[in-house]
Design goal:
The structure holds 2 protein chains of 2 kinds. Chain A is mostly helical. Chain A is built from 13 helices and no strands. Chain B is an all-alpha fold. Chain B contains 13 helices and no strands. In chain B, helix 9 packs antiparallel against helix 12. The longest helix of chain B has 33 residues.
């Protein structure tokens, strides 16, 4: 094969990969911009007339903004709390002497891998006994637990890469461990902290299983629950589902295009570096 | 002491909302508990629930379905993941945009992805029918109403959604292979295929194993796709353990019986993850412990 044919083949293959990666999303975006009649046309109409009717209907009849608000509160609070706890734990695991470090890291990894059903019933019972079903904290607490492994693993691996000398110098100058952590380590590891924040936010924004169990009242439901349970009176409201899905997805698409490098680095942090 | 106080909050969360619930699941599974009938109290019935579980045909089918789902999805995800990783590992113009595009399926909420695919497989408005049969609407199929196609549909949706994650892990592995190895092989006259089999594959194997571990564990908890696309049907052909457990505990309120499924799932995944970790060896922790 000549070099040129090879290159053409490579670009073609890449295009196919990109096309199939984007197709379902683009099709839903397309659907969300159709009129009611275009959505239910058979055979499907490929191009939309650019109507915003589905968005309007999703907001007015299906309380879309309400779900968006709940998702922002839950995902935002989860990200903040998990980050703070992970910074402490990550620092300790990266820098200080701790017995059974391997066991701690291993059990965190196990927590991130177990199917949620193995803890679902008891978590529901615990929250019920506190009266926390259908409350924000009722969902945020399990989310913090489930995102901690991610946060701690990423931050530990970022903290480890920082030169220890800076911190030692600060300690010699009379800084406490605490001051060294917040004045030297965290600012230097800001890219790592930010990466962890993005990944935790995406996890909490997308989670469905616990949100479905814990938030049974519409008032507190997050976007994924809302989108999964959208029901029309007689037919599926595909236009509205597509509109809500687009609203739920656009922030993530922006995050991915802006921070693609960080996300890739964060996801493979620790996994492959051994 | 200082170090311990730093990890204490993390530990507290994990203990309360992960380890304690796992043990509590086992306790619950030894009782008869019906959420909607609190008047019955919670009699201790030893392994009665487990006896029932062994004769539960739907539980067995969910177990088989879950394993089938795990095998087929991880196989295709590693295959496509490797292909994608090889493509985006090259240097070319627009690589950043291609990488971002490939990440989109991973970032999309699974519920949203499930609705997208449910719409694509729709019997009247679906893109798939249109792609196959054009405007000949008489031929349109109700894919999700067919046991086999419904199962393949959730497999396809999962493979679409998570191949990019596998690709990222594999990509990180590819990037650790020094270019000099390929240069030397070229000088020695190795073909592209030989270079792939003799250099790339063996050196990327650890990354493949880690991707396999993460994907297997994640495939085990498939829930969103099933909940949105098929509700376990038709005829339980897409029922999986996590969905069946959810239905028993929360839809039917059988907290005691449902907990046997929680315990079963826990031990199955524990066993598999220990097997994998043994295969991967200390790589994962070597640097840290």
């Amino acid at each position: 094969m000549s070099g040129r044919a090879k290159r053409a083949g490579f670009y073609f293959l890449t295009l196919v990969i990109v096309f199939f990666s984007l197709l379902p999303f683009l099709w839903f975006l397309d659907t969300s911009l159709k009129t009611q009649r275009e959505v239910t046309a058979t055979p499907p109409e490929l191009f939309p007339s650019g109507s915003l009717h589905s968005y309007q209907s999703a907001i007015e009849q299906y309380n879309l903004l309400h779900y968006v608000k709940n998702s922002i509160i839950v995902a935002g609070a989860t990200t903040l709390i998990t980050l703070i706890i992970s910074v402490f734990a990550g620092y300790a695991l990266a820098r200080l002497r701790i017995k059974y470090k391997g066991v701690i890291m291993g059990s965190l990894l196990l927590v991130s891998m177990f199917p949620q059903i193995s803890i679902a019933g008891p978590v529901w019972k615990i929250l019920q006994s506190f009266g926390w079903l259908n409350t924000y904290q009722g969902l945020i607490l399990p989310y913090v637990t489930l995102t901690l492994p991610l946060g701690v693993w990423i931050l530990t691996s970022f903290f480890k890469e920082l030169p220890e000398e800076l911190e030692k110098a600060a300690r010699v100058d009379g800084c406490s461990h605490f001051q060294a952590l917040f004045k030297i380590i965290v600012p230097l590891a800001a890219p790592g902290v930010f990466t962890a924040a993005i990944l935790i936010f995406i996890y909490a924004w997308n989670e469905f299983f616990f949100a479905l169990l814990i938030m049974t009242q519409q008032k507190y439901q997050t976007l994924p629950v809302g989108i999964a349970l959208f029901q029309g009176q007689y037919t599926m409201p595909w236009g509205e589902i597509a509109a809500a899905s687009t609203v739920a997805t656009v922030p993530l698409v922006l995050l991915v295009f802006l921070f693609q490098k960080r996300i890739i680095r964060g996801l493979s942090a620790g996994a492959v570096k051994g | 002491m200082f170090a311990l106080s730093l990890i204490a909050p993390c530990f507290l969360f994990i203990l309360t909302f992960a380890f304690y619930p796992i043990a509590y699941s086992f306790f619950l599974s030894l009782h008869r508990i019906i959420i909607s009938l609190p008047g019955l109290e919670q009699p201790f019935i030893w392994f009665g629930n487990y006896k029932e579980l062994f004769h539960d045909k739907i539980a067995l089918q969910s177990l088989v379905n879950t394993f089938l789902f795990v095998f087929t999805t991880t196989f295709f995800e590693l295959l496509f993941g490797l292909a994608i990783a090889l493509a985006i590992n090259k240097h070319f113009r627009g690589r950043g945009i291609v990488r971002a595009a490939v990440l989109i399926p991973w970032a999309i909420p699974t519920v949203v992805a499930s609705q997208m695919w449910r719409f694509i497989f729709n019997d009247t408005y679906g893109l798939l029918n249109y792609a196959f049969f054009g405007s000949d609407t008489a031929l349109y199929q109700a894919w999700l109403a067919d046991p086999l196609f419904a199962f393949l549909a959730i497999v396809a949706a999962d493979v679409w959604k998570t191949s990019s994650f596998a690709a990222l892990i594999i990509l990180a592995g590819l990037q650790t292979i020094p270019d000099e190895l390929y240069d030397a092989a070229k000088i020695d006259g190795a073909t592209a295929w030989q270079r792939f089999v003799k250099i790339t594959l063996p050196l990327v194997k650890p990354a493949l194993l880690i991707a396999l571990l993460f994907r297997t564990m994640d495939a085990f908890r498939v829930f969103d796709l099933v909940f949105v696309m098929t509700q376990g049907g038709p005829a339980d052909s897409t029922n999986v353990l996590q969905f069946y457990g959810y239905k028993k505990i929360f839809a039917e309120g059988l907290m005691g019986y449902g907990s046997t499924i929680s315990v079963l799932v826990f031990f199955v995944t524990l066993l598999i993850s220990l097997l994998y970790l043994k295969m991967i060896g200390t790589r994962l922790f070597g640097e840290r412990s």
